[in-house]
Amino acid sequence: MSIPYPAHLCGLLGRSPLFTAVRHKARINIQKPKLPHWRKAQFQRLTEPKFPATADLLSRHQGCYLAVEVPQPKENNPLEVLISTKLREVCDSSELMVFFHRNSMSMTEIHKAWQMLKRSGFTYHKLFNNVIARHAFAGSHLEPVLQLCQSHTSLITCQEPRVAQLLKLQKKLPQLVVLGGVVEGRFMSAAHLQDYSKLPDLATQHAQLSSLLAGPAAAVSASLNHHQAALVRSLAEYGRPPVIDGAGVSETEGES
């Protein structure tokens, strides 16, 4: 067997490496051939011809080495489309949507978290993939939330914006990390949700606003009616009849 010059192996010359097979005088075992020498195996691997497949020769684009493979469009999974439709309906009717990054949790921990949130009036949506999220939120006013659905994402919804109660329950679930959410149609980060939870409820804010608006009017009314009220009280004191005790003498006469 001839050994090619090293320049051939480095690709400096355009022609293929020279390879010569030499047959020994011994009888060849065709059924169980002996493995070739490792150097011979290298040369056989190097000089093995590679022909294009028959299917590649049928298309001009497939025969081009510089052609870019165009991915075929995938059909939508009917189950994923159904789940995304239900998820979209729930999100449209909810005033509170909070996205969490879910760390490693066992099925027992997930069931306990679901029960805890269910008793408090929240709906815990199990782990869903990014395809379902794209089907549910793409092309809608909730499309920016797709930035939060990049990894293991969980969603909790509620019909009322009870952010403070949800964050209080989240302290008992350290495996759920707050990413952000939507409160009454407004997108909020984790820090904004913390600030929102410290605000009083809507009824309390309405009462505070009403008292604030009614304060100046009540002060002006009291100032304008002060003199008239004082005059009425004085006249009432003067017009009141004298009080007579049991001896038949009035208090004014007794004092005199």
Q: Can you characterise this structure?
A:
The chain has 256 residues and is α+β, with helices and mostly antiparallel strands. The protein has a domain at 94-197: Alpha-Beta Plaits, CATH 3.30.70. The chain has helices at residues 6-9, 38-46, 60-63, 78-92, 107-119, 130-137, 163-170, 190-197, 202-224, 226-239, 251-255; strands at residues 96-102, 123-128, 153-158, 176-183, 186-189. Helix 7 (163-170) crosses helix 8 (190-197). It starts with 5 loop residues before the first helix and ends with a helix.
Query: Under the CATH scheme, which architecture of the domain at 94-197 would be assigned?
Result: 2-Layer Sandwich
Q: Please tell me what the overall shape is.
A: rod-shaped
Write down the secondary-structure element order. Answer: HHHHEHEHEHEEHHHH
Mean pLDDT: 78
CATH superfamily of the domain at 94-197: Ribosomal protein L10, N-terminal RNA-binding domain
* Number of discrete helical segments: 11
CATH class of the domain at 94-197: Alpha Beta
- If you compute it from the alpha carbons, what radius of gyration comes out, rounded to the nearest whole angstrom? 44 Å
Order the strands across the largest sheet as they lie in space: 2-3-1-4-5
Features:
five-stranded antiparallel β-sheet; alpha+beta; Alpha-Beta Plaits; 256 residues; 11 helices; disordered N terminus
